UniProtKB/TrEMBL annotation, chain A:
SMART domains attached to this UniProt entry: AAA
Keyword Zinc annotated: no
Protein name: sn-glycerol-3-phosphate import ATP-binding protein UgpC
Domain of life: Bacteria
GO CC annotations on file: ATP-binding cassette (ABC) transporter complex, substrate-binding subunit-containing
Gene designation: ugpC
Gene source species: Brumicola pallidula DSM 14239 = ACAM 615
Annotated Pfam families: ABC_tran
Domain called ABC transporter: residue spans: 3-233
InterPro entries in alphabetical order: AAA+_ATPase, ABC_transporter-like_ATP-bd, ABC_transpr_FbpC, ABC_transpr_MalK/UgpC-like, Mo/tungstate-bd_C_term_dom, NA-bd_OB-fold, P-loop_NTPase
From TrEMBL, chain B:
Name the UniProt record assigns to this protein: sn-glycerol-3-phosphate import ATP-binding protein UgpC 2
Listed PANTHER family: ABC TRANSPORTER ATP-BINDING PROTEIN, MALTODEXTRIN IMPORT ATP-BINDING PROTEIN MSMX
One Pfam short name: ABC_tran
Native source species: Brumicola pallidula DSM 14239 = ACAM 615
Keywords (A to Z) from UniProt: ATP-binding, Cell membrane, Membrane, Nucleotide-binding, Transport
Automatic annotation (TrEMBL), chain C:
Domain ABC transmembrane type-1: 67-278
Membrane topology: Multi-pass membrane protein
UniProt entry keywords in alphabetical sequence: Membrane, Sugar transport, Transmembrane, Transmembrane helix, Transport
Organism per entry: Brumicola pallidula DSM 14239 = ACAM 615
CDD domains reported for this sequence: TM_PBP2 (cd06261)
Stated name of the protein: Multiple sugar transport system permease protein
Sequence similarity: Belongs to the binding-protein-dependent transport system permease family.
Amino acid sequence: MSLVLDNISHTVNGESFLSNINLTLESGSFNVLLGRTLAGKTTLMRLIAGLDKSTEGKVILHGKDLTDVKIQERNVSMVYQQFVNYPNLTVRENIASPLRIAKVKGSEIAKRVQETAAILQIEPFLDRFPLELSGGQQQRTSMARALVKDASIILFDEPLVNLDYKLREELRSELRGLFKERNAIAIYATTEPHEAMALGGNTTLLHEGRVIQSGAATHIYRHPDTMEAASLYSEPTINLIKGRVTDSGVSLENRVHFAMRAELEGLPNGDYMFGVLPSHIGLAPNNDDDLELNMTVELAEISGSETYMHVHNAHFELIIQLNGIHDYHTEVPVKVYLPTHKLFVFDLTGKTIQVPSSIQKGAS
Amino acid sequence: MAEIRLKSLAHSYKSKPTSPDDYAIREMNHVWHQGGAYALLGPSGCGKSTLLNIISGLLAPSNGDVLFDGKKVNDIPPEERNIAQVFQFPVVYDSMTVFDNLAFPLRNMKISEDKVHSRVIEIAAVLELSDLLKNKAKNLTADEKQKVSMGRGLVRSDVSAILFDEPLTVIDPHLKWKLRRKLKQIHEQFNITMVYVTHDQLEASTFADKIAVMYGGQIVQFGTPRELFEKPNHAFVGYFIGSPGMNLIEVKKTKSGLKFNNTLVSLNPEMQVALDRVSTSNIKIGIRPEFVHVWDDKAEGAFECDVLHTEDLGTYKIITMKLDGEVLKVRIHEDRAVPTKKAYISFPEQWLKVYVDEYLVDIEEPEDEEKETV
Amino acid sequence: MQRKVRDNKAWFLVLPVFILVAFSAIVPIMTVVNYSVQDIFDQNTAYFVGAEWYREMLRNPALLDSLGRQFFFSFSVLAIEVPLGIAIALVMPTKGRMAAVSLILVAIPLLIPWNVVGTIWQIFSRADIGLFGYAVNALGIDYNYTSDPTAAWLTVLLMDVWHWTPLIALLCYSGLRAIPEAFYQAARIDRASKWAIFRHIQLPRLKSVLVIGVLLRFMDSFMIYTEPFVLTGGGPGNSTTFLSQALTQMAIGQFDIGPAAAFSLIYYLIVLLVCYAFFTAINQLDKAK
């Protein structure tokens, strides 16, 4: 039992929105579509829901071609970015609405509404109207409406993006729990790698209408196929620096040199792109082989418990992710330490050649 | 120049407030010093927008005073308060060019056209808008529009404070940090008091030297980003700052420490003494997920927990554990091994906080902080 | 990649509309075109006369007079109703009970049937028993719309202003309500004068509703018939005979079907042309910015 997207392409007025999408999503699975705005996430969801018809390819559910099946007969539900509820109906009636349309018995409706409301913790508000509720409660209501009917496919189109981050945290951790016992196929679109990883499940990385990579949540983080995948799946984005390997060692941007080390020894001489994750760079040396760089602070962004530092020198820019609070003014000189044993290596076409061994270990 | 002082300020939208719940702003005394970069941080509905409107003069407070440099301004309308405000959604005069937008406040003050010209050119350069001066404001991108609306405040030499109301809401995520940087640079360059209202801890901590955290119509802590993280003064601050927020567990006082269910958390003697004077039953312990110590194995004094699940976020992991019926979140670095089924944790004394009636029990010597008095 | 949809189903879906439009617009217009090129004596006797009626109509002084009157009237209507409507919208209260009361008061003239409007003003303006007519005469101004062409013309104008300014006012009122509060707050902080607020915030944001308002008012006033017909019957003399009334007289009063048909089509083209010119001008103005 599964949902198969068979070679789907979608073109509108000559502009390609999706090209050659091939995916298989199993029943009972939680799937994340990760991609920036305009990557094609919403387009793909609309095709699955039946709101649009793809120009090429098929949507096959449980072996049955859905291409010509109308949206009303597809048994899908969808949660949107905006809090979409019926303003003139109470929360109870909002949740009940899909069941009423499906002509479910009254007693059954009451029972299921109660159950779903309990799961989403909106029982106290059942008799209120959506606009009297906070944003988080409104979005819980629209989620309840999507969950109350036994849909075979449930689509979430960036449902948390309009909520405060604390509410996001809460709803996100609850959301995974909701799907443990369901046999539905959940598809969740997000722009944030962090959210994709927090939700876990299967992740499909979309970019400009193509599938870049697909796999278990942390698999892409630990084994990106390409430089594109590594940079789309890191937050803050992985730092990329051009470098050259010669007999005497490695030079970055022809300026910063360091001696060849065991991890990079297998590399033939030539030009490469080196990647280093923001969290791997520090303000103090961790290892003997850390490369000391003199940089200038552009901005220290502080996020409550972490600091993201944007630094630069004449040749490249780096983003550094630090635990705790590090308060820097702009344009201040700072020494940073780049661990040469934690470098990703990509060839100039963007294919991954090597991933640092310390990261791969994390998979255990 | 402006120091903004709130004196016994309170506000209710009801004409006859009866209970404290009727107040959007509960009585507060607060000072923003001249030239500081401040943030007003809190969840939606905490009263921060109300407070901002009171400061700008768009709303008259029902009790207390607003003082600018010691002068009461309650009855002075916004246009005479020498403040500028940047709103959530960019406000530009669509039909005018960028130049005319920036010149608008000056022209309204009947300043000579050549002075207007030089001032606009100067401010446009600071905001990196010089190339756009001839463009119609209508066709600008959201971040450019926000710069224009900020520029209308900066051109006025009489402006001594700029208020920001969630100014980055409509800005593209990847442009946000650039605008944050611009804001910070402008603050460093101009000697202007800036107050930035937001619900986002990243915006607040990046911009401000000191943050006022608002909750339930009150400022529950006024401190640096570091203080909010390391020493939250109120249980709400602990929860609200950091992701995930602080673990908070309700406990009961005993002679040998604090107890929840069958677990006893021992305290140092000073804390024990401090708690002896407490009569309320509302006591909580709090510890941040970052500061929970995870042992590799059973250890002396470590609590045994059940591991419920692990969120792998790549560079770190968040483990949800159950300790004697209470759920805790613990954050560990990606290089650390993840405990399976059972974990052994302890709470380093330095990071274990005690909250009585939601407020921190502070037993440390007070540092030489300026004590604000009104 | 692109694959054209070779499906003609869509045409079937719009077919009913075509049929409807054909019966409601195209067929009647073609009938008029047919009449306009014939000299019709009775049901069975008609001669093809080509463009003769058109030539005659364009030389007909009575018609040219009423065309001139019509333009003058329509532009006067716009010149008064648009600024007045905006002014009313600006002073209408926005909050509380007064907002609802003022909305109802302003909307009342719009709810009255057109012929009743004519009747009301006919009585209202009478010098002997009408409140307005009597009051004006009491002020020492000699006013009698049944005998004085200027007075009659002004009365028709006044009646139209009374009847239709509320439409502009309501359109502008809704346009003003759509301006976010932050714009006013920002303007106050920028120390903008009331005039500057109007000029730079309110007016630019009223543009789209004003375009609709002006178009509606132009077309409507250009085709005005009922109210002056009831009020003055087109008199005294021909002073308030507007195009549609002249046309009706010709077609129904004198049964000159051919010339009347030619005239209708000229009339129709003028309305289309003015609306098109107006619309294009506004769009060009928009692009220029």
